[in-house]
Amino acid sequence: MSTAAKPRVAFIGLGIMGQSMAGHLLAAGYPLNLYNRSADKMAALVAKGARACASPAEAAKDAQVVITMVGFPSDVEEVWLGPQGIVKAAHNALLIDMTTSSPELARKLAQAASAAGHRALDAPVSGGDVGAREAKLSIMVGGEPAAFEEALPVLQCMGTNVRLLGPAGAGQHTKMANQLVIASTIMGVCEGLAYAKAAGLDPSAVLQTIGSGAASSAQLNVMGPRIVKGDFEPGFFIMHFLKDVGIALSEADLMHLNLPGAKLSKSLYETLAERGLERAGTQALYKYYEEPQS
Ligand code: NAP
């Protein structure tokens, strides 16, 4: 796509991730329609030239590309297929869901989009709030190769590693694999830091040492320093992580696959959610290990 012919993009869902991602599209010169459930989250991008809309339908009706980055599968379904949904409102458009959602819903949306004359992709992301801010996300895509090629220039504004993994649903399956790795890794990060503290070590010095060794990971190097500072603000909400592990475990059941690490991680996070921490960041898992252990 040349600079002169950038298609109009509608971006729906302007939370922690969507705010930065939509900002990169605007900065790259894409004319941008916005919609978010809480209207105040549109203000910053409207000030930079985007157009605020009153519904997903209004955002989609004159857009060639429609991107959704909402919270839960139920939100995706409402925004795509609800009475004010994008499938009905858009005209011959490329519809991309970047929410972490279920592979089954991705296949259903692809069929509905195709029946309405659109192209559809599932394109969830990894890289967290930092990756979104720095436009360095990994973007895992499911759908038809032609739609992937069409989407690439837009997706490359938000990520550095954009891959087609297979047909509709393959992006979400890949994201589930990603979340399963994180589910067990974040437990290890918290346990290592809890152990270091109990042993009387300086946790920052421990992080600086093991962060470049064989234990190195994004979880250790991004979440570790937040834990040491006592910063439990959300980069990634516990409630969204519980959603993801729940989807992964349901899919694993269908494949007759036992995932004990994910089950344990889910039960620990459920304990924290019961304590009112569902809107804390996933690094707040450390609080579990601060409890007196018998
Ligand atoms: P978030 O801050 O809660 O953002 C979601 C946004 O979507 C909110 O602003 C919300 O509106 C809006 N929304 C929800 N339902 C809507 C609807 N029906 N209509 C219109 N807008 C709606 O969450 P996030 O952290 O950006 O995450 C978004 C998605 O990406 C989630 O599926 C999450 O699992 C996934 N993800 C997150 C990260 C991360 O590190 N944060 C990384 C990778 C993937 P309100 O403002 O009214 O709540």
Write up this protein.
With 294 residues, this protein is of the alpha/beta class. The chain folds into two domains: 3-166, Rossmann fold; 173-290, Orthogonal Bundle (N-(1-d-carboxylethyl)-l-norvaline Dehydrogenase, domain 2), CATH 1.10.1040. 51% of the residues lie in helices and 13% in strands. It is built from 14 helices and nine strands. The protein has helices at residues 16-27, 43-46, 56-60, 73-81, 86-89, 103-115, 128-133, 145-155, 170-198, 203-210, 218-229, 238-254, 260-274, 286-290; strands spanning 9-12, 32-35, 51-52, 65-68, 94-97, 119-122, 125-126, 137-143, 159-166. Strands 1, 2, 3, 4, 5, 6, 7, 8 and 9 form a nine-stranded mixed sheet that branches. Strand 5 (94-97), helix 6 and strand 6 form a beta-alpha-beta unit. Helix 9 (170-198) packs across helix 11 (218-229), helix 9 (170-198) crosses helix 13 (260-274) and helix 12 (238-254) runs antiparallel to helix 13 (260-274). The longest helix has 29 residues, at 170-198. 43% of the residues are buried.
What is the topological layout?
Blueprint: E1 9-12, H1 16-27, E2 32-35, H2 43-46, E3 51-52, H3 56-60, E4 65-68, H4 73-81, H5 86-89, E5 94-97, H6 103-115, E6 119-122, E7 125-126, H7 128-133, E8 137-143, H8 145-155, E9 159-166, H9 170-198, H10 203-210, H11 218-229, H12 238-254, H13 260-274, H14 286-290
Parallel strand pairs: 1-2, 1-4, 2-3, 4-5, 5-6, 8-9
Antiparallel strand pairs: 6-8, 7-8
Helix pairs in contact: 9-11, 9-12, 9-13, 12-13
The structure holds NADP nicotinamide-adenine-dinucleotide phosphate (NAP).
NADP nicotinamide-adenine-dinucleotide phosphate binds at residues 12-18, 36-38, 41, 69-71, 75, 78-79, 99-100, 125-126, 128-129, 235-237, 240.
